[in-house]
Amino acid sequence: MNLRDKPKSKISASRKLSLKMLLLQRACDDLEKETQDREEEKVRYLGEKLPPLQLSGLSLEELQNLCKQLHSKIDITDEERYDCESKVSKHNKDIHELKLKVQDLGGKFKKPALRKVRVSADEMMRALLGSKHKGSMDLRANLKSVKKEDVKQDKVLTSEVGDWRKNVEAMSGMEGRKKMFDTAGGAQ
């Protein structure tokens, strides 16, 4: 069976459309019901925690006692709010750590950008070999030494060449080519 040969749907397009419309209508009804339930829960909770105040006919001492009670209730609710916030932050940290573990196990971990670090050869060898590394490593000791005679010979060769314009005029034409051929053949 080829991928192009898809099995035909047993449900007609109009039936699919009507089912989608029914699902969307049901979802909208559920959302409305959920918001109403939240509002009712909020009103019930506030009614339970904050009974309506009746201030008429109270003396000064009774008003002061009422204020003290309200302040104590405010302190209690602040403590509860703080506890809830700390629990939420702890859970968020746990979720973040678990996400990192999942990424590590899944192998889809983004490698962080590495910083450039300047490390000398001695420090690098000490880090790699630990206590086995002794003394300093002189990288210049392995370089090829140049004798001063070679430098003098290079200077002599450059002084022989002289002005390049004179050489061009002397080597132009067939006689110049013959001279170059003779000097190259004689040098071997």
What is the structure about, briefly put?
Helices cover 69% and strands 0% of the residues.
Report on this model:
There is one protein chain. With 188 residues, the chain is an all-alpha fold. Helices cover 69% and strands 0% of the residues. It has 6 helices and no strands.
What's the helix and strand layout?
Elements: H1 13-49, H2 60-106, H3 121-129, H4 148-161, H5 164-171, H6 173-187
| N-end to C-end Cα span | 79 Å
Structural class: mainly alpha
Would you list the SSEs in sequence order as H and E?
HHHHHH
The mean pLDDT is 79
What percentage of residues falls in helices of 4 or more residues?
55-70%
Radius of gyration, in angstroms, nearest whole number: 46 Å
Oligomer: single chain
Number of strands: 0
Question: What overall form do the CA principal axes indicate?
Answer: elongated
Low-confidence stretches: none
Strand content: under 5%
The biggest sheet amounts to: none
Number of helices: 6
